[in-house]
Every structure is written in structure tokens, then in C-alpha cells.
Amino acid sequence: MSESLVAIDPPELFRSPAFAQGMILPEGPILIVGGQNGVDAEGALLDGLQAQTEQALRNLLAVLAEAGSGPERVGKLTIHLAPGIDPTDAYGATRTVWGDHRTAVTVLTVAPARPGALVEIDAIASVPR
After folding, report:
1. Pairing mode of beta strands 22-24, 74-81
2. Are the C-beta atoms of 20 and 102 separated by less than 8 Å?
3. 92, β-bridge pairs
4. Strand (E) positions, the chain?
5. How far is CA 20 from CA 13, 69, 81, 125, in A?
6. pLDDT tier at 1 (50, 70, 90 boundaries)?
7. In angstroms, rounded to a whole number, what is the distance separating the alpha carbons of residues 19 and 106?
8. Which of 3, 74, 83, 90 has its CA 20 to 30 A from that of 112?
């Protein structure tokens, strides 16, 4: 099997430059990254969607790095947004840290478990052997 992710974009479905319809993960152990909020190392929640989204992604990248993985091995992101948050605004904030790594993405609106949280992001990634 390839060491790279393979995007699955059937020709009869819309092809987004930002996300894939499906992803085949490279061979290796699978890492499940729990939901990451926009909190700093002291647990303080940052202010605003941009700051929280960027911090949540930095937190996610830290978990990936600790496991020996990286954004290029993420097959799926799930982005949970607080009610009333425009997904377009969240996407702009996501690109700042995440860059152009295409992956399968699900975006949901949910009531946050932590008061004041505007975004939470989890991931499924492979880890090299």
C-alpha cells in the first residue's frame, strides 16, 4: 500500500478544493485524536472564532506530532461549531494553520460542552510504522 493518503473523488460528485469525498489512509497504526478546543497550555479558552480555531488546530497538530504523524496523514477531520457560527468563517480560520492539506471533513453545529467554546476539532490519522 502507498505511504500517502489517496483522495477519493467520484466524478459524479462535486470536487472541492478544500476537502475530499473520501480518503484511503496509508498502511500503519491508526491514531484517533480526541476533540481539541481553542485552549492554551494552561487550559485558558482563547477569545473569538479565529483564535480558538487556530489554537484547536495547533493542539491537534501537537497530538499528531507526538504520535509521529502529521497533517499529511489525516484521513478525516470533524469540526464541531457552536450554533450561529458561519462555516465559511471557520474555514478561513482553519486554512491559516492547516494549510492546503485536503482530507475528508464533516462540519456539524452542536452545543459546546465547554461554555464559551466556539469550535472543537477531532481527527483520524495514520501513523507510520
Report:
1. unpaired
2. yes
3. none
4. 6-8, 19-20, 22-24, 30-37, 74-81, 103-109, 119-126
5. 10, 20, 20, 15
6. low
7. 9
8. 74
- Give Dmax (Cα) for the chain: 47
Residue 113 confidence (pLDDT) above 70: yes
Q: What is the pLDDT of residues 10-56, one digit of tens each?
A: 999 999 888 899 999 888 899 999 999 999 999 999 999 999 999 99
Using DSSP bridges, classify how beta strands 30-37 and 103-109 pair: parallel, antiparallel or unpaired: unpaired
Residue 99 falls in which region: left (phi positive, over 0), alpha (psi -120 to 50) or beta: left
Selection from 33, 30, 12 nearest residue 21 by Cα: 12
Q: Under a CB-based contact definition with an 8 Å cutoff, are residues 5 and 72 in contact? A: yes
> Does the structure show a pLDDT above 70 at 2?
no
Read off the pLDDT of residues 64-103 as tens digits, 9 standing for 90 and up. Answer: 999 999 999 999 999 999 999 998 888 887 888 998 889 9
Which residues, 6+ apart, have CB-to-CB distance to 100 below 8 Å? none
